[in-house]
Every structure is written in C-alpha cells, then in structure tokens.
Design goal:
This protein is an alpha/beta fold. It has 8 helices and 7 strands.
Length: 245
C-alpha cells in the first residue's frame, strides 16, 4: 500500500519538526518545508527517515505565493499527491500597538496568515481531485483570548480560525476535513526567550502548572490527520494544559 504524504510548513525545528517525526513514525511520507536551507534541517530529516518515511525537503517561504506553488508542484511530482497539509510555520514580532511598526505588522500577517492561504490554495485542488484530504493549521490561545503585545500575532491566529471554519464548509463535500490546533505555552525556540516574569505569570494561569511540549501538539495534529478524526471538521482543538478554562 502506498503511504500517504503529509506536507508540514516550518518543519525544520520546533513544533513542526516534532509533527514531522511523529507522522513519520505513523506510516506517512513526509514533505518538510522551511525557509532555512536543507543542511540546517538534517537532524529532522534524518529522524524522519530513521522512522521509515520517505522524506522530501523543500526550502520554501510560506509568505511567497510562487514559492508555495513550486513546493506543491515538487511534492505532487514525487508522491503523486498530498493527503495532509499542516500549516505550522509562524513567527512573532511582538510590540504594544502604539510601538508596533508597519513592518512588524506586515511580516507577521504575511507569514502566519497569508502563508496559510498560499499553501492551502495550491494544495486544495489536489485534495479535491483525490476526494480526500486533511488540513490542520496552527492557531494559538492568543487568537482566541488575545494577548497584550501581540495584536499582529493574535489577529493572524484568530484569522486562521475563521479560515478553518470557512474552508471546512467549502470542501467538506469533497471528503476533506479542515481543523485547527490552538496551543497554549509550549517549550520551543519561539518561547525560549520569554522573560522569567512572563514565564511565571503564564504558568500561574495554566491549570496543569507547566508549559506543554512540542510532542503534546504533535499528538493532537496526528489525531486530526488520522482516520480516527474522519468526522471532525471545522474544529479548534485547544492544547493548553487548561489555560483557557
Ligand atoms: P518555531 O520554533 O519558531 O518554529 C517555526 C518554524 O517556522 C521555524 O523552523 C521557522 O524557521 C519556520 N518559519 C519561519 N518563517 C517561515 C516562513 N516564512 N516560511 C516557512 N517557514 C518559516 O515556532 P514553534 O513554537 O514551533 O511554533 C510553530 C507554530 O505553533 C507557529 O505557528 C506558532 O505560532 C504556533 N504556536 C506556538 C506556540 C508556542 O508556545 N511555541 C503557542 C501557540 C502557537 P526559522 O527558524 O528559520 O525562523
């Protein structure tokens, strides 16, 4: 039986790498895309291969429409189609609104939100043709509840929820599910430089009293990609240790 291929954006490190490695161990072939060159993603690529997956690495910037088009073209050439898309790539450029520059706003919107459009727009026609597919996008608790200093980031993560629900309605009849995962605070390079005071304040608001791991998020993504989630669409799955209670 041919393995299904899953494309994960921003998968050289952090949560994306953990999603790639987890799915590689669950009998999927893996397409890793990231802005960084292939040699810097070797660790993730090798771990996926060790788990038995065929791996295609494509250096690709999700904020570029043509770069996503090329990534999808190469993926379909290699694997014959794309069963799953994980829109994981994301950046932060935090500042209070009054101090936020236009560049900080535009960068975050281009990567986090337009990136989801860019990659989905090129992948969906192939899923429609196959009459099957899974799209999972990384939102955030910041997109549900807001977060001071993150008007740009929160807007993109709230936008992903609207995108997810709308696209789920558009493509459900074609056998495609579209869902989002909303992580709370997860230990990755993105949160590594938070000031100690912010870490303590965030931890105090988490019911389970600790940050989550990339594996906690990868487990949720893997479930939504799997056959076990075949009747779940347009859902936002919070994985936040009870932070949102
Ligand atoms: P991360 O460690 O910073 O990883 C993000 C990955 O995306 C990096 O490999 C990064 O490459 C890549 N990337 C950045 N810009 C890109 C672009 N234009 N095109 C393609 N790839 C790009 O972040 P993470 O913590 O794993 O976060 C993954 C996702 O989860 C993000 O969408 C994030 O918003 C979301 N999330 C994370 C948390 C958390 O607590 N960590 C909480 C809620 C939601 P470089 O390293 O070269 O920049």
């Amino acid at each position: 039986m041919n393995k299904k291929a899953v494309l994960i954006t921003g998968a050289a490190g952090g949560i994306g790498a953990c999603v790639a490695e987890t799915l590689a161990g669950e009998r999927y072939n893996i397409i890793i895309t990231d802005v960084i060159p292939e040699e810097k993603a070797e660790n993730t690529i090798n771990k996926c291969k060790e788990k038995g997956a065929e791996v295609l690495y494509i250096q690709s910037d999700v904020s570029s429409y043509s770069s996503c088009e090329e990534a999808v073209k190469q993926s379909v050439e290699k694997f014959g189609g794309i069963y799953g898309l994980v829109n994981n790539a994301g950046i932060i450029k935090d500042a209070l609104l009054m101090r936020m520059t236009e560049e900080q706003w535009d960068n975050v919107i281009s990567v986090n939100l337009k990136g989801v459009f860019n990659m989905s727009h090129h992948v969906v026609p192939h899923m429609v043709k196959a009459k099957a597919g899974r799209i999972v996008s990384l939102s955030s608790v910041a997109g549900i509840y807001g977060n001071a200093g993150q008007t740009n980031y929160s807007s993109t993560k709230a936008g992903i929820i609207g995108f997810t629900k709308s696209l789920a309605k558009e493509v459900g009849a074609r056998g495609i599910t579209v869902n989002a995962v909303a992580p709370g605070f997860i230990e990755t390079p993105m949160t590594a430089n938070l000031p100690q005071k912010a870490v303590e304040e965030a931890t105090s608001r988490i019911s389970l009293k600790s940050f989550g791991s990339a594996q906690d998020i990868a487990n949720a993504v893997s479930f939504l990609i799997s056959d076990k989630a075949s009747y779940i669409s347009g859902h936002v799955l919070s994985v936040d240790g009870g932070m949102s209670l």
